[in-house]
Each structure stands twice: as structure tokens, then as C-alpha cells.
């Protein structure tokens, strides 16, 4: 059971938009920055969004992030087949003194 | 450009030991906190341990506390994970990751390619 809660899977057609939620508590999301990671099967995770809504260089603006209270959301617009991957939210939990991840969400582009 | 390369994975028996290494390059290793994260086959990401930039603070997941030890040698730009009393459930790909600051929190902005540990 992960500290952060994500839906196990989401799907949408090419060109459409999808959102992935990440729910936590005041000890993690509520008081720390959230980051998102993309993992294509068989490869290492890659930072996708940091500080709730910032994109590292090279990440297209089709990817966006937001945070409200103890929840965060990843948005992907203009879906492409290459976006099929597992997506994880993560943040520091001050009460646990631990980095925590969501359970991951598998994105399928139909 | 920051780069991390893990090594030391392999097969170990239950109760055995392994030491993983993570060689860092392309950034000032001694200025950043570092993480170990693992991923069991077909499962999600699981944080293992964190070490502060100077090694003065270390944090561990409850599942590995007392069995694993994270350390670093800033003179060699290398991060380590000593794994003792290994269990079957420790079987996973182990990734090292660079933090974005000297202390905990922030983001994991660079990941290695991972090294597979099999306990059987």
C-alpha cells in the first residue's frame, strides 16, 4: 500500500488529453513539492515535472503539473503513442522521514 | 551532463550480502543528496535510502532498516549500498538517483540505468 494514491491505469485516444491524480496528506504533498516521473517499460525512470508544475529542459509543454492542498495532478495533452508508460508521483514525507512514491499509473494510448 | 552508473548487482542467497556502487560524473557529487530506489519485477518504485551530501544524515525505509547501509565517498564520486541479511523480497532492480539539493526533499533529477539484484 503506497503512501501516495494514484489510479492504476488511465487510457485515451491519440490526440486527446488525460489527467493522473496523486493523493497524499499534510505530511507529504501538503507541505512539500511534488515531482512526476515517466518510466517506459524496461528503462529507468525520468523526471517529468518538478516543484509541482515545472518542466525540466527537453520536456514538451504537453506535460503539465498542478497541486492543490494534499493532491497533485499530472496532465498530458495531444497524446502520442510514445507517451505510453508508467507514471509515478513522488515527494518527501516529513513525518516518515522518507521519500514516498505513488503506486504508479499505466497510461495506454488506444 | 550528470550521469550515474550502478554496478555490483547479481545473485545472492537468502541471508547473504551484496554491495552496490553508483559512480557519478558530470556534476559536483559532493554537493548533492543521493538516493537508492528499487523496483521489484512487475512492481512500482520503492524508495530504499537517502544520504545527505556530506554523509551526516541517512534515512532508510522500514523494510531495509538494520540490514542495509547507505554510504558515500565524495573523493571517489561514488555512492554505495551495503545489503546484508538479504531476503527473497529484496529481489529488484536497484537505481541510484541524484537529489536536487544537499538535503532531503526536492526531486530526483538524474537516475542510473539500474542493477539487478536477485535473492534466491
Explain what the structure shows.
- The complex is a heterodimer of chains A (110) and B (120).
- With 110 residues, chain A is an all-beta fold.
- Helix content of chain A is 0%, strand content 45%.
- Chain A is built from no helices and 9 strands.
- In chain A, strands 1, 3, 4, 7, 8 and 9 form a 6-stranded mixed beta sheet that branches. Chain A has a 3-stranded antiparallel beta sheet with strand order 2-6-5, with no helix packed on it.
- In chain B, strand 7 (68-73) and strand 8 (78-83) form a beta hairpin.
- Chain B has no helices and 11 strands.
- In chain B, the strands form 2 sheets. In chain B, strands 2, 4, 5, 6, 9, 10 and 11 form a 7-stranded mixed beta sheet that branches. A 4-stranded antiparallel beta sheet of chain B has the order 1-3-8-7, with no helix packed on it.
- The radius of gyration of chain B is 13 Å and the shape is globular.
> Beta-strand percentage of chain B?
over 45%
The strand count of chain B comes to 11
Coarse shape of chain B:
globular
Radius of gyration of chain A (CA) equals: 13 Å
Q: Which radius of gyration of chain B do the C-alpha atoms yield? A: 13 Å
- Give the SSE string of chain B: EEEEEEEEEEE
Low-pLDDT ranges of chain A = none
Which features does this protein show?
heterodimer, A: 110 residues, mainly beta, three-stranded antiparallel beta sheet, 0% helix, B: 120 residues, seven-stranded mixed beta sheet, four-stranded antiparallel beta sheet, 11 strands, globular
